[in-house]
Write a structure and sequence with these properties.
- The structure holds 2 protein chains of 2 kinds.
- By secondary structure, chain A is α+β, with helices and mostly antiparallel strands.
- Chain A contains 14 helices and 12 strands.
- The radius of gyration of chain A is 36 Å and the shape is elongated.
- The relative contact order of chain A is 0.06.
- Chain B is mostly helical.
- Chain B has one domain: Methane Monooxygenase Hydroxylase, Chain G, domain 1, CATH 1.20.58.220.
- In chain B, helix 4 runs antiparallel to helix 5, helix 4 runs parallel beside helix 6 and helix 5 runs antiparallel to helix 6.
- The chains are: A alpha+beta, B mainly alpha.
Chain lengths: ~425, ~240
């Protein structure tokens, strides 16, 4: 294919050079013919000379002037792109780009598209992959040549919320191919969303501590005005409540920040052993306070996954903190790391296990919901905000990791984070 | 790649089926999503829209049935093509059921919106719907790309849905016991939760159909179900 194209291009250049130099060439040829006719040259020599003149005129380096054709404006640009494969061009575009045919079958998807939407095989029907009613009507409008512009918004709610603005254009004229470009709008949408979510969550969760603070102020100004002992007691409660509100706002902000982040697979190799060490160092203080020892069980070799150290530390800090708080009675928390390189190659996993009372079975599936508490009283006493595991789950979703919670009755609870095998780079 | 760039009438008929499935899938997903949204926000207008949308889904299913029967009668397809057509019939009937379940949730919005419900009642339901929708999306994506690599996960997640449903069941029972005035709304929510759980089951069915279309084999036998809600009893004092 490439050879044909090169020859074709070469021929066309030759023809245009000839057109430009036609008077010169004609004069030269006429001179040779006249010489030969007058007997100054042999006919075969004259023939060779003619051919040489024509060849030089056609393919020799000529002055680069714009072609005096009607397509003059467009020609330089298209000639400039011609040597490059369309595939390279598509790959160089950072946004997902998909080329489809008249029936909607995918002809080509660039790397960004595959990274964003998973693997497309050529021939996959695009309307099967993007099924929203809006996308379907956008597609039929595009294929039937309805008036431009062809733009639609495509949103995916699960597993991570993403929004795209999709623009469709026919490819060239009469090729019956179409190009769709997906512009990621998630970030702007998330900012809008964050604001409303934050207000909704904050107003709901802050109301209780706020009401209690307000109540105590009223009491302090009224009936308890002169009761020094009660005043101290109430001020203590008020301090606890305001501290709780502060923690709640911190957690809400951290969750919102996480939700803000763009959908990008983490790309740095992180040694899980170092992460665990840092988490244990940070948590030892709290553990000692509640009378728990943290036991570390890690393999002697590095276990690497692609990730962000800060996020991973946040995950395990939350898990260890919970284990210390709610498994306090067990006196021990075990953090174990399994490289997962055995026969099944299931990927590395980290288990945080406590030996406390455990979690009743019916609550387990719902622990990662925001503000879900097994026991509101204990949670409040332990300064929980009801957001810790929601944060954990949110981070793990981005790592394509699974959180499994096991708690056989009376044997404490084990939280296992299973990372996918493809991510690990233990080799 | 198969040499299918010459579009004959037969190819076009198969493409028609795929197109209609795409339409049904998109609509069913949208209906469930909007039904739950309407429920949480007590948005009766949105609920009415969902109920009306079900018509289009039913029509698409009839289209697929008719067309599939005609193709089988006329072309007498074999192997891959036959599996493809039978698969389309089965998936469309699953999707139609998903739409019905979504419609049923939407219908309950009206009776639930009379009195304001505490928000925590809906959180669990939202999370359950999120799981079911992920499930549905995953299987329909698998159908689109013809890849069965992630199909196994669908079953794992179905267990999650069942466990979550059982937990919700308990929670709603507790609310009913706390205050008999909750019984009406909690019963409606219980049915909504059950509907969402059924949507998960239909997604699993579709997963099995997709597996069959792609590989020609049946999916390995299913493990015992995790749904323990039938064992939940009210402790008597």
């Amino acid at each position: 294919m490439a050879v044909d194209e090169a020859i074709d291009r070469w021929m066309r250049r030759g023809a245009s050079n000839l057109r430009r130099a036609k008077w010169l060439v004609a004069t030269g040829c006429a001179a040779i013919v006249v010489l030969a006719w007058l007997g100054g040259l042999d006919w075969p020599v004259a023939g060779l000379a003619l051919a040489a003149v024509l060849a030089v005129a056609a393919f020799g380096p000529g002055a680069r002037a714009p072609l005096p054709t009607s397509a003059g404006a467009a020609a330089p640009a298209s000639a400039g792109l011609q040597p490059y494969s369309a595939e390279y061009l598509a790959a160089a575009i950072p946004d997902p780009l998909v080329m489809i045919d008249q029936a909607g079958a995918i002809v080509h998807a660039n790397d960004a598209a595959r990274a964003a939407f998973g693997d497309f095989r050529a021939g996959t029907l695009i309307q099967l992959r993007f099924r929203t009613p809006e996308f379907q009507s956008f597609l039929s409008g595009l294929r039937e040549g309805a008036a431009e512009p062809h733009v639609t918004d495509y949103a995916e709610r699960v597993p991570i919320e993403r929004w795209f603005r999709v623009v469709g254009r026919p490819l060239g004229h009469g090729t019956e191919l179409f190009v769709l470009v997906f512009k990621d709008q998630s970030e702007t949408r998330r900012i809008d969303r964050m604001r409303s979510d934050f207000i909704a969550n904050a107003s709901h969760e802050l109301r209780t501590p706020l009401a209690s603070v307000a109540g105590f102020i009223e009491t302090l100004r009224g009936p308890a005005r002169n009761d020094a002992k009660a005043r101290d007691h109430f001020l203590q409660i008020m301090q606890d409540q305001t501290a709780r509100m502060a923690r709640l706002i911190d957690d809400l902000l951290s969750l919102s920040r996480l939700e803000m982040k763009t959908y990008a697979a983490p790309s740095r190799a992180v040694d899980l052993r170092q992460v665990i060490d840092r988490v244990i160092d940070a948590m030892n203080h709290l553990a000692a306070e509640v009378g728990v020892t943290i036991v570390r069980e890690v393999p002697p070799v590095p276990v690497e996954i692609l990730g962000q150290p800060d996020e991973l530390i946040q995950v395990f800090e939350n898990l260890v903190e919970n284990a210390c708080k709610y498994g306090q009675s067990g006196g021990k928390v075990v953090v174990s790391l399994d490289a997962g390189t055995g026969a099944e190659a299931s990927g590395p996993s980290v288990t945080v296990r406590d030996f406390g009372p455990g979690i009743p079975e019916e609550h387990i599936p719902r622990l990662t919901e925001r503000f879900y508490r097994v026991d509101a009283e204990t949670s409040r006493a332990q300064k929980g905000t009801g957001l810790g595991l929601a944060i954990v789950k949110h981070i793990l979703t981005r790592y394509n990791a699974r959180l499994t919670i096991r708690s056989p009755s009376g044997e404490g609870a084990a939280f296992t984070v299973q990372f996918p095998p493809s991510q690990s780079r233990s080799s | 790649m198969k040499s299918d760039h010459i579009m004959n009438a037969y190819d076009q008929e198969l493409k028609f089926l795929a197109n209609r499935i795409a339409f049904m899938g998109g609509h069913a997903e949208r209906m469930v999503d909007q039904a739950v949204q309407a429920l949480v926000a007590s948005n009766t207008d949105l609920a009415r829209k969902v109920v009306a949308d079900d018509m289009a889904l039913d029509e698409a299913q009839r289209d697929i049935d008719d067309k599939a029967v005609i193709i089988i009668a006329r072309r007498q397809p074999m192997a891959d093509d036959l599996r493809e057509i039978i698969g389309a019939i089965r998936i469309s009937s699953d999707l139609e059921r998903v739409g019905d379940l979504g419609k049923n949730i939407a219908k309950r919005v009206v009776s639930l919106s009379d009195a304001a419900q505490p928000i925590q009642l809906f959180r669990g339901l939202e999370a359950l719907a999120q799981l079911a929708l992920t499930q549905l999306k995953e299987v329909l994506d698998a159908y689109a790309t013809r890849s069965v690599a992630r199909i196994g996960q669908v079953r794992d997640r179905d267990d999650d849905i069942d466990a979550m449903y059982t937990s919700l069941f308990r929670e709603l029972l507790t609310y009913m016991m706390e205050d008999p005035r909750n019984i009406a709304s909690c019963t409606h929510l219980l049915f909504c939760a059950k509907n969402i759980e059924r949507i998960g089951d239909h997604a699993t069915n579709i997963a099995e159909t997709v597996y069959h279309i792609v590989t020609g084999d049946q999916m390995p036998a299913e493990r015992p179900k995790e749904d323990k809600s039938h064992k939940v009893v009210i402790p008597t004092k």
